[in-house]
Inverse folding.
């Protein structure tokens, strides 16, 4: 009986930790999106890869929020599923950031206002929130923060937030 009580306490502690980590991911993704909008407000229009990264952060935020709600509601199966989708979203966002980093390292290349921008600008979400999702910038024109190009910071953000969601994938089932 004592072993069951200890196991239950450990499960509860892990459930609590994964809930807080997921909420921290929500906060981090929201702050990143707010920072992206601020950089845009300062006169740096987002490029197609920036928009894909924003969508990645938005998906990470949404799935982490659902994960934390599911954990609080003692529905770890749903929490694990949405955490997996959050991790997948983070990896896809990281892929877009990595492509953007590659373009920064190879300044002769550019995504420009290419078919990707045209495609993104015709998505329904772009029409609903053009201030957030309209791709009007060039991938080679990136702002620097503390001497480091913004796509590098974005890649780092995806790595950290995705890593913070990983414990929710192995969180125990409720009893």
């Amino acid at each position: 009986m004592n072993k069951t009580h200890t196991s239950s306490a450990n499960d509860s502690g892990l459930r609590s930790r994964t809930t807080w980590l997921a909420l921290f991911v929500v906060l981090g993704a929201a702050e990143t999106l707010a920072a992206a909008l601020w950089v845009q407000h300062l006169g740096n229009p987002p490029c197609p890869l920036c928009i894909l990264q924003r969508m990645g952060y938005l998906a990470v935020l949404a799935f982490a929020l659902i994960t934390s709600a599911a954990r609080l509601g003692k529905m770890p199966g749903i929490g694990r599923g949405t955490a997996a989708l959050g991790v997948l979203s983070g990896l896809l966002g990281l892929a877009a950031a990595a492509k953007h980093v590659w373009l920064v390292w190879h300044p002769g290349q550019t995504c420009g206002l290419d078919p990707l921008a045209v495609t993104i600008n015709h998505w329904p979400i772009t029409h609903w929130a053009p201030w957030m999702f309209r791709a009007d910038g060039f991938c080679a024109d990136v702002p620097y923060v503390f001497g480091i190009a913004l796509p590098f910071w974005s890649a780092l953000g995806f790595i950290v937030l995705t890593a913070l969601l990983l414990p929710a994938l192995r969180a125990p089932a409720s009893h």
Notes: The helical segments are 2-41, 48-72, 76-105, 115-121, 124-128, 130-133, 150-165. Residues 2-41 form the longest helix (40 residues). The CA atoms of residues 109 and 122 lie 24 Å apart. The chain is about 75% helix and 0% strand.
